[in-house]
Amino acid sequence: MSEGPRRVLIVEDDPDQAAAVAGLLVDDGFEVVQRHDGDSGLDEALGGDYDVIVLDIMLPKRSGFRVCQDLRAAGVQTPLLMLTAKEGEWDEVEGLDVGADDFLRKPFERTVLMARVHALLRRQERGRPQSLTVGEVSLNPVTRQVVAHGRAVSLTPREFSLLEFLLSHPREVLSKGEILDAVWGGDFDGDQNIVEVYVGYLRRKVDPAGGPSLVRTVRGLGYSVREA
């Protein structure tokens, strides 16, 4: 990580969009460099020292997916936030599969963008362990592989983020509010019961048939992951 002001590389082909994002970051004390196509963005990311990369998907010369994939293949582990104007989850799935750390759909609120950037910085400062394991469930944050009771498990990006957060705090009781802030973002204003819904999804995917649940409900308090 660079010393002094935090440095962010923005790779966005729309000059107005790039300038708007850059303005938000500069106002928050960041040093910003802009590139407007995939090839120059890749070259800059490989040669520069950045704390976060903000990368659009639809870029000329080389797509954001390809840029991300090439960076990870070259060993660059700088936190990377991907942007897209498309609807649906498939872009998000593909972006996370090639090594992106987070995903933001346009148009977005400035507070959401800044929250995501700061969250990536905090995650980098804490460091990401090679794997998180509780009982018979293991998650690799780098390869995004999940194994439960000896079998590979396929999770959606949101399910993965939820499981990663829970496994990062074994035996702790986490409130719905804490989970929402970490997984859905601090600006989330929807129904808190979404946490309960996604915990249910996880249980169906990672728990053994007829066996005890990895994610325990602590009545009136929240959730906790514990070995069976």
Commentary on this structure:
The chain is an alpha/beta fold and 228 residues long. It folds into two domains: 7-126, Rossmann fold; 132-225, Winged helix-like DNA-binding domain superfamily/Winged helix DNA-binding domain (Arc Repressor Mutant, subunit A, Orthogonal Bundle). Helix content is 40%, strand content 20%. It has eight helices and eleven strands. The chain has helices spanning 15-27, 38-47, 64-73, 90-97, 110-126, 157-167, 176-184, 193-206; strands at residues 7-11, 31-35, 52-56, 80-84, 102-105, 132-134, 137-140, 145-148, 151-153, 215-218, 222-225. The chain has a five-stranded parallel β-sheet, with helices on both faces. Strands 6-7-8-9 form a four-stranded antiparallel β-sheet, covered by helices on one side. A two-stranded antiparallel sheet has the order 10-11. β4, α4 (90-97) and β5 (102-105) form a beta-alpha-beta unit. α2 runs parallel beside α3, α6 crosses α7 (176-184) and α6 (157-167) crosses α8. The relative contact order is 0.10. The model has no long low-confidence stretch (mean pLDDT 86).
